[in-house]
Amino acid sequence: MERVALAFSGGLDTTVCVGLLEEEYGYDEVIGVTVDVGQPDEEFDEAEETAGALDVDQYVVDAREEFATLCLDSLKANATYQGYPLGTALARPVIANAILETATEHDCDAVAHGCTGKGNDQLRFEAVWRDSDLDVIAPVRELELTREWEMEYAEERGLPVESGNEGDWSIDTNLWSRSVEGAKLEDTGYVPPEDIYEWTDAPGEAGEADLVEIEFEDGEPVAVDTVGEPSTSPRPPAGNGEGLGPVELIEYLNELAGAYGVGRTDMMEDRMLGLKVRENYEHPAATVLLNAHEALEGLVLTQEERDFKAQVDQQWSNKAYQGLVDAPLVGALEGFIDRTQSRVTGTVTVKLEGGSARPVGRESEYAAYSEDAASFNTETVEGQNITQKDATGVAKYHGFQGRLANTVIDANDKRTLATDGSGAGENGEE
Ligand code: ARG
Predict the structure, then answer these.
(1) Ligand 1 midpoint to CA 205 (Å)
(2) Closest ligand 1 atom, CA of 81?
(3) Is 121 a catalytic residue?
(4) Is residue 349 domain-shared with residue 409, that is, in the same domain?
(5) What digits encode the pLDDT tens for the residues 186-233?
(6) Model pTM greater than 0.85?
(7) Of the four, 141, 299, 360, 425, which is 20 to 30 A from 262 by CA?
């Protein structure tokens, strides 16, 4: 008895995979595993319905807490890829691990996914799975299926597949972001209609601005609250937003900032295989938190730490994009990141307004900041024994090396002109 666990969403790809795993790959039994990382309820209803119609045992694994914690953790590395907050990429290893565990529990011989051979997700799933003894199967890629062929296959067998409106776009939703791609968006010049967005209202429609305060401890958000009476926005659940769990904190900020149109991205993304793809994303909570986190780092980290950390963050984000969070490099980078985050404790005020989430205030007991030193009004810096006048020497030296080098260059240029006579020759003044 050969059994395979399939990453199952109930969409066209995975629905078709069920039949193919039996017919083409000879498995006796397929079980479907759906991992909850914050998809909308309808997706679970659809998956359950389809599994029922296909007579497949379907298991739902709740990984929301684990995923939300990972998202908040990723703030420490200011995790973005080509400018947008990593969402799908962070979710895949969590999903892949949950499927692997379920497969093992149910004595499966193999694991399968319905990803195509063009995207990133095949690589992210398999990076986790190929570390196990189970066989890895990718029917859509291996049998070179097209969407058209899948539609026909499903129709012939009377398989339940949704069609029409939503089916136009390929959508991937989790707590941290909603991604929309495919169909007309493949035309890079196509301006998407407002209705592809579900988490964000058109910027500008929300009216007044809202101020939201985010409290961080060791680089992680631990409380949120709106300042004053929020205009149209929802109050944070659980009173003043303290003690919110990671899931609730993200959900709350998605709703609050989404109403101001915060967190929309329309971009060309370079996938791992080298293909460029048109992507649209929505990520209100991630944008608020990333902006706030960076603002707090700006207050507490030294300039050289910030410069170096930007490189570390980018390396971390690249590995996360690739789904290779277990790479030794990641652990090493986190050694540095964690060392810096112990000071990223404090409060940031963010203004939500017309599609933007702008930090407008920041405070920390770890501020590497002296009001005395920066102020135009004070003469001395307390405890440091330096005054404005001390900068005179620094100002004299500033640019000294370049001035010296330019003098030498000028002198050499003149000498060259004089010896080869080229300047005169060209002007015909012989
Ligand atoms: N391109 C993004 C990534 O690789 C998101 C893909 C999401 N999938 C989708 N069908 N919308 O992370």
Answers:
(1) 28
(2) 12
(3) yes
(4) no
(5) 999 999 999 999 999 988 777 678 999 999 999 999 999 988 765 555
(6) yes
(7) 299
